[in-house]
Each structure stands twice: as structure tokens, then as C-alpha cells.
Amino acid sequence: MERRPVVGETYKHFKNKNYKIIAIAHHSETGEELVIYQALYGDGMVCARPLDMFVSEVDHEKYPDVKQKYRFEKIETPVLEMTIEDRMMKFFDEDSLEGKYQILLTMREEVTDTMIDNMAVTLDIVIEDGPISKRFDDLKRAIQTKQRYEQNNWLR
Q1: Could you give the CA distance from residue 13 to residue 66 in angstroms, rounded to a whole number?
Q2: What are the per-10-residue average pLDDT scores of the chain (156 residues)?
Q3: Which residues contact residue 31 at a Cβ distance below 8 angstroms, ignoring those fewer than 6 apart?
Q4: E-strand spans in the chain?
């Protein structure tokens, strides 16, 4: 699915309210995928909506004045504009190894030993002590190796 939401992303509803994706769930009886999202206003209500409905276009017959094309549209916050702490959280929340790798690449100039240790823990690996640049490269290689292993394992 081209417009599949990802945990941690922020979306704007066509009625101008913002929501954060918490999870993609599977209905236990029907297997239907549901988007679990939280309001970023008021009391932070948590909602669920079928994935197909979440990514659908606005009914412009029912809402002729709405300019937004889709019911929910992703709000882009470029990773480079995020604080290093937000990038760390995005790394932790990211489900895909490719996503983690891309986030890691943006952190080269700011990464610390503690950050490398914390990222390694989430990947269930250990990065040996040494110069920060070597540790950073070791973490990159570890992610790439995991990606290759998981891809090859998935193909079997």
C-alpha cells in the first residue's frame, strides 16, 4: 500500500486536527488492519479506524469545501530538522531496519557513545568500545548485516 502510515508519524485529518500513529493492529476476528492513532489535542483520545478508510480520499460530495485530497495526510517533519533526542526516539520507534539505518546516517556528527550503546541494545547487539567514528561505522555495518540476513531469511 503506497500511503501506509508508520508508527510515530503525524497526520492531519481533513477537519484540521492532528494525530500521531500509535500502531497498526489486526482485528482478531476478521484480520482487517486497523490504524491506532492518538489525538494531539484535547485529552489525547486514542482511536482506531480501518486502514483502508484511514488512507482513503475525502468524500468531496459530502464535504465540497475541503481542499485536502485524503482523509488523513502525513505531516512531514524532515529528520534533519529534528533534535538529536527526537531522532533517537524516531530510531527507537522505527520498525524497519532500513528506516533505522537512514535515521542513524543523520546522526554521524552528533552521536555519542551512550547513544550508540542505547541503539545497539534496541537491536540486541553489542558495539565494542573504541573511537566514536569506528563505533558508529560498526553500528552501521551491524544494521546492514541484519537487513541482509532478514531479507535472505524472509526469501526462504
Answers
A1: 11
A2: 81 93 94 95 94 95 93 82 84 88 91 95 95 96 89 57
A3: none
A4: 10-13, 18-26, 33-39, 46-50, 72-75
Measured CA to CA in angstroms, residue 4 lies from 23, 30, 142 at distances of: 12, 19, 27
Topology, domain 10-75: SH3 type barrels. (2.30.30)
Look up residue 23 and give its amino acid. Answer: A
- In the chain, where are the structural domains located? 10-75, 81-155
**What's the sign of the alpha-carbon dihedral 120, 121, 125, 130?**
positive
Per DSSP, the three-state class of 146 is helix
Note the pTM of the prediction, 2 decimals. 0.52
CA neighbor of 44 nearest in space, from 68, 76, 14, 22 = 22
